[in-house]
Structures are given as structure tokens and as C-alpha cells.
Specification:
mainly alpha; 79% helix; 0% strand; disordered C terminus
Length: 228
């Protein structure tokens, strides 16, 4: 097997390992992949041409044929949520840096006032800064988890727990703003803010649900019948 085919087969085996297959099923799939790679080399053709489709599609068909598992559709959603949460974490970090800069400016300004109070900047900006740091860390970890769970369907339950936790956090944050801002802002804007505030955690839950491994009833029936 040439080096290019080895790399391609290695990627395909790595992709297959993200599914909750039995060890004997994985061995059988690996044998099929090695056999296709050897056939491609003997024919002097690219592996993809021998497969007749993309390596990912071929793996999905093998996984379904041997393990009875359909490829979940939530991976892209989880990857999007992971990237979005990391972006939010970055924005929180940027906000903390901005607050620290503002605190330094306020403290420097107090040195030239008639009654200097060098802790003015700290008192005004510290609570918000601490909140931003905590939220930034939470969103960063949530984003990292979403990306991690997107590649392994066996971790879909953990992904759902994180998704529900983030929904509680985001909905709770919206409720606090709703209570404090009701009567000050138009109701329609407050309701629209709910969509903006919670859409990412809802997507997280959808992605986690769609990333669950599921067996086709027809495949289960065939296996049960063959065992009898």
C-alpha cells in the first residue's frame, strides 16, 4: 500500500472509530478498507476511484451495512455552536481587557482630582469584570466540549447535558434582563432578545439530539431474524 493510500485509509479508520461499534465490527470494516486499498494499488488507480464515491460516504455505507448505524446529522451543528461559543468567550475576554484599561484611566484621573480615590475605577468596573471572566470561561469550555462531542456519537448524552446547562444559563440571563428592563424597553424588543439570547443553546440541544447514534428498525429486525 503506497503512502497516500495509507494516509487516506488511516483517516477513514479514525473516522469510523468515532462510532459506537463493536470491536468485531470495527475489525471487519478495517479489513474491507485494507482490501479496497490493496485493490486500488493493484489496479494502479486512486482509492477514491475504486470506492466509486468519497471516502466519507463509503465509510458511512460500511458503518450502516455492518453496524446498522446511520450517520448522525448533528455534527455540523455542534461544530457551529462550538465555534460560536468560542467567539463569545473571546468577546467577553476583550470586554475584560477594555474594562481593565478603563479602570486604569479612571484611577489615573483620580490622582489629579481634589479628593483622589484611586479605588474608584476598581469599584465601578470590578463586578462586571469578574462576571465577564466567569462567563468567558464557561462559554470557552462549552465551545470546546461542543467541538469535542461533535466527533464522537458515543458522547451525545454528555453533549445534551452541556446543552441543557447552557440553555438554563442563557434563559436565566434573559429572565434577569427581562425583569430589570420591563417597562423601560418595548416588550417586542425584550421578546426578540430571548431568541438572540437562547438560539445557540437551542441549536446545541438540536445538534446533540441529532448526533445520537440510532439503529434502523429494519436492520434490527433482520439481525434478530438471522439469529433465530
Amino acid at each position: 500500500m503506497n503512502e497516500q493510500s495509507q494516509k487516506q485509509v488511516h483517516k477513514m479508520k479514525k473516522y469510523i472509530s468515532t462510532f459506537p461499534l463493536k470491536s468485531e465490527e470495527i475489525i471487519l470494516i478495517h479489513k474491507d478498507l485494507d482490501g479496497m486499498a490493496e485493490e486500488a494499488q493493484n489496479r494502479g488507480e486512486p482509492l477514491e476511484k475504486v470506492l466509486g464515491k468519497s471516502p466519507r460516504e463509503f465509510c458511512d455505507e460500511l458503518i450502516y451495512a455492518i453496524g446498522g448505524i446511520k450517520t448522525p446529522g448533528g455534527r455540523k451543528i455542534l461544530r457551529f455552536v462550538g465555534a460560536w461559543y468560542k467567539l463569545i468567550a473571546f468577546l467577553f475576554l476583550f470586554g475584560v481587557i477594555f474594562d481593565l484599561s478603563s479602570a486604569v484611566v479612571l484611577t489615573f484621573g483620580e490622582l489629579f482630582s481634589e479628593h483622589p480615590d484611586i479605588l474608584t475605577g476598581v469599584r465601578e468596573l470590578l463586578p462586571g469584570g469578574i462576571k465577564a471572566v466567569i462567563l468567558g470561561i464557561v462559554y470557552y469550555i462549552a465551545g470546546k466540549r461542543a467541538l469535542q462531542y461533535s466527533t464522537d456519537v458515543s458522547l451525545s448524552d454528555k453533549a445534551m447535558k452541556w446543552a441543557v446547562g447552557m440553555f438554563v444559563l442563557e434563559f436565566g440571563s434573559w429572565m434577569y434582563d427581562f425583569i430589570t428592563e420591563i417597562g423601560k424597553e418595548p416588550m417586542i424588543l425584550l421578546l426578540l432578545s430571548l431568541v438572540f439570547c437562547c438560539f445557540s443553546s437551542v441549536l446545541f440541544m438540536i445538534g446533540a439530539k441529532r448526533n445520537c447514534p440510532h439503529l434502523e428498525e429494519e436492520s434490527i429486525s433482520i439481525i434478530s431474524y438471522s439469529e433465530e
